[in-house]
């Protein structure tokens, strides 16, 4: 398959304790090269989505790491060119299973990014494809 670029500790501090891989479009946006919508097409753009792969360094994923993985992604407004800190206002996470050894796959989607708020839904699957965590949060959008 496609080789996913790694994210170094200087960009994403959590990378010091775990291996993180982003899909190529998200990696470009994290590196401050956001893909901006074409003029006049903003309301026809699909919702921001991100795929990540993660595993702890020097250990296998456990329930705590699966829970952490539900909040591991960079803030979703980054994908539409609004980088910065995005404090969570509310977060709910559900552990659905114990992960098997290997990489965890994270799918994140934001259905609403607007004004000063955004939402984020994360689904975490283990190396066998089993659902291990679901997380939903509401957060403040980074400044203009």
Describe this structure in words.
The chain has 144 residues and is mainly beta. The protein has one domain (13-32, 44-140): Acyl-CoA thioesterase, double hotdog domain (Porin, Beta Barrel), CATH 2.40.160. It is 10% helix and 33% strand. It has helices spanning 24-30, 63-69; strands spanning 18-22, 49-56, 88-95, 104-109, 113-114, 117-125, 131-140.
Q: Short summary of the structure?
A:
The protein has 144 residues and is mainly β.
Keywords:
144 residues; ACOT8-like_C; mainly beta; Porin; Acyl-CoA_hotdog
| Through-space gap between termini | 37 Å
Give the strand content: 25-35%
Shape type? globular
How many beta-strand elements?
7
Give the class from helix and strand content and strand pairing. mainly beta
Domain unit count: 1
Any chance you could write out the topology, listing elements then pairs?
Blueprint: E1 18-22, H1 24-30, E2 49-56, H2 63-69, E3 88-95, E4 104-109, E5 113-114, E6 117-125, E7 131-140
């Amino acid at each position: 398959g496609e080789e996913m670029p790694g994210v170094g500790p200087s960009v994403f501090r959590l990378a010091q304790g775990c291996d993180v891989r982003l899909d190529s479009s998200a990696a470009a946006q994290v590196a401050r090269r956001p893909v901006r919508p074409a003029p006049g097409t903003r309301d026809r753009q699909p919702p921001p989505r991100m795929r990540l792969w993660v595993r702890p360094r020097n250990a296998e994923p456990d329930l705590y790491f699966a829970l952490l993985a539900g909040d591991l992604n960079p803030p979703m407004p980054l994908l539409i060119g609004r980088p910065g800190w995005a404090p969570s206002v509310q977060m709910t996470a559900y552990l659905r299973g114990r992960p098997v050894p290997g990489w965890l796959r994270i799918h994140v989607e934001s259905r609403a990014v607007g004004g000063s708020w955004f939402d984020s839904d994360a689904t975490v699957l283990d190396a066998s494809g089993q659902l291990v965590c679901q997380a939903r949060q509401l957060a403040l959008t980074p400044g203009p």
